[in-house]
Amino acid sequence: MSETTTNTSGACELVLDYVYGELDEARKRTFEEHLPTCATCQREVASFGKVRTAVKRVMPAVEPTAQIAGALHAQLMHAAAQRKPRRGVLLSFPRKIVEHPALSAAAMFVLVGGAIAINWSRGKMAMPAAEQTVSDTKVAEAPKPTEAPAEPVVPEPKAKEEEAGEKLGKIGTISKGGDKTELAKNEDATKIALETPSGPMTVQRPTAHRAVATPAPKKAAPARMKTVATDGKQAKFDTAFADDKGQAEGSLGSVNGRGAGTTTGSTKGNNGPVGGVIGGGGQAGAKDAPAKSTAPADELSSNTVAEKAATRREEPKPQAAKQHGYTTSPSSAGASATPPAAPPPPQVTASAPATERDYYRSSVQQQAQPVAKPSANARNFDVLQKQASEWAKTGRCAEAIKAYQELTKANQYIPPTERVHWIHCLTAADRQEEAQKRLDELKQEKRVTNAQILDAEKELNDSRKRVDANKKSKKAPAADRAPAQSAETQQRRAADQESPAQAAPPDSTNTKVKPSSSY
Amino acid sequence: LVRDDSDESLMLRYRDGDVRAFELLVTRHRKALFNFILRFVRDTAAAEDVTQETFLRLVKGADAYERQAKFTTWLYTIARNLCVDAARRGKHRKAASLDAPLGDEDGAATLLDLMPDTGAGVDRQAQSRELAVRLRQAIEALPDEQREIFLLREVADLQFNEIANVIGCPENTVKSRMRYALEKLREALEEYRDLARAVQ
User: Fold this and answer.
1) Which residue, among A1, A27, A55, A93, would best test binding to B if mutated, counting the most B CBs under 10 Å from its CB?
2) What CA–CA distance (Å, rounded) separates A8 from A186?
3) Could you tell me which of B27, B108, B197 has the C-alpha nearest to residue A73?
4) CA-closest candidate to residue A311, choices A303, A300, A321, A322
């Protein structure tokens, strides 16, 4: 069937719109003007009108069934109420991803894979170079200055007696925590090796100290004692532990000597709990006196205090008192009724004390050092390093080189600046190879400025040139100088034998080496 | 408050979570929609299902609704598509016809004859019944593309441009099909008038 209309007129096209009332006013007026003149349009309008009327008669509007008005309507409204309100359009896609498990897994895979790929492309996940690992290992092996054990105050040889007594508390406090581990590690517990700037020194360990030094099984400290350790400087002892404390401190008093005990035995607590107990202050001294010791908190180990107390309990106290001839004064608290055992005079291989006062002073000094051996060594190394620096700056290159070598042997950390001094000293002492080696190490570490490195290199090159020139000049008159040199060498050896402490390396002299102008 | 609102504003309010607006929309269009669907699928149960499904489609598509076209256009587009699907399924289903004779004989009564009728006079009722049967037969005899346009225009009361949007064809095509549908129905009515005159 063809759907083309037979009406050719434009107005005749508007019949349907006119019948169904869809014409606007202007077009309606136009059609109504056309309608009287067109019989076809008149017939169609009439017939279509009749059809519409008939259709409305035979096809009346049907009311929805009860099913639609009742149950289906309720179901529909429930479904409409279940719908969640519309949320942001921007987040609709991420929301779909999150709500869908497969999409979530895919998104996670993409994110993780992308992160790995980015890191891989940037080289963050590549293995480090071998050189870098080696240098890192070296740096890690070198002990950090800040991590060095806390330094106790080592009594100076020329200190006054009161100062020595005041230090005793600190030393004794350090000995509480410091002796056990180090002495247990020491192979020969009867001797103590000291390294001093002036040279090595060996000290005989006292027998009583040796007994303490024997490694004993560690004993768990009571909870209250642990609080003492955590308090650090302001140590507060519980009165219930007065006995243990007094005995433990008594042992310290025995180490420190009688003079210290008598001078510091007051409730003021200047010397910490040690002096208070030794001097008969007993419980009051320990209880009331805030420990003003400068010892660090970690060395006030509660374990150590408890173990010492236990050790002292086992020891026959009267025997210890008889052994050292002490006459004890009764303690008010009874905690330190038995006097602390004092060690026998140490056998120091150096000079023996002349008077009793010197004896105690020397015993205090010599015994304090082995107890605090690690700290003392660290301090000695610091002193040695400072001295080496001073020697290098003042042109005493031979001594500086020796000091630096000692520090290196002891695995002590030498700052880069000091190592630059060392290189200058090596160069000045005509030890070019060693200087070059140190300089290369310094270059690899890249911890000094380029100017310092260039300066050291220039000096090293100048030194090499000077040595070469000397060699060339020495070649010609070598035969004439040989006897004279041998005589000079013999004299130098003789001088070295006389003063071994000031022995210089064979290629350097004891005289001061004038540093270069740039240094 | 919302009874004077347009269909579009009600739908937007429902999109934002106002269920009362949707309920009002359903109440407003339920009757016309059910009639259209009933004339289209010619089965009450199927018409109920399709009506319910049409409104559920509105609920599901509320988030995507934008105020670009008339709400009725959107509504009848959904309904028409569902009706087409239902009609395709209904072709394989045996449905009872109101006009088909109940017996094998030609003069047997139809289902429509058994239905009670509360009309005026007997002759008048008979003529009206005959007219209705003829007219229904003529409407059902219309081609699908003409019938759906006729139903959308007469039952759903959509304008020609809206019908064009619903079925997706030009407006002139809609008018042309509508014209042919009306001419066929007029012919059916004229035959009935000739028959009625001859009987009288």
Assistant:
1) A55
2) 126
3) B27
4) A303
Helix H or strand E encompassing A320: helix A317-324
Cα dihedral: A444, A450, A451, A456 (round 10): 20
Banded model confidence at residue A399, pLDDT cuts 50, 70, 90:
confident
* Three-state SS annotation for B24-67: HHHHHHHHHHHHHHHHHHCCHHHHHHHHHHHHHHHHHCCCCCCC
Q: Closest to A51 (Cβ–Cβ): which among B26, B132, B189?
A: B189
Using the CB atoms, write b or e for A145-154: b if 16+ within 10 Å. Answer: eeebbbbbbb
Judging contacts by C-beta atoms under 8 Å, the chain A residues touching residue B14 are 80
pLDDT tens profile A148-200: 444 444 444 444 445 544 444 444 444 444 444 444 444 455 666 666 666 66
Closest-approach residue (CA) in chain A for B21 = A80
Which stretch of DSSP H or E encloses residue A438? helix A432-445
Task: Decide if A75 and B52 are in contact by the 8 Å CB cutoff.
Answer: yes
User: Given an 8 Å threshold on Cβ–Cβ distance, is B135 in contact with A59?
Assistant: yes
Strand bridging mode A191-196 / A199-204 = antiparallel
Q: Residue A344 has what DSSP assignment?
A: P
Q: Is the dihedral of CA A30, A36, A40, A44 positive or negative?
A: positive
Residues A201, A327 contacting (CB under 8 angstroms) = no
Close Cβ partners of A309 (under 8 Å, ≥ 6 residues apart): A241, A243, A244, A245, A247, A248
User: ipTM of this model?
Assistant: 0.76
Q: Which residues of chain A have a CB within 8 Å of the CB of B159?
A: 20, 22
**Pick from B51, B155, B178: which is nearest to A16 by CB?**
B178
Q: How confident is the model at residue A376 (pLDDT cuts 50, 70, 90)?
A: low
B55 contact A CB<8A: yes
CA distance B195 to B198: 5
Question: Strand, helix or coil at A6?
Answer: coil
Give CA separation, A226 vs A215, A222, A274, A300, A359, in Å. Answer: 21, 7, 18, 10, 37
- Mutation pick from A13, A16, A18, A75 vs chain B, by most beta carbons of B within 10 Å, is A16
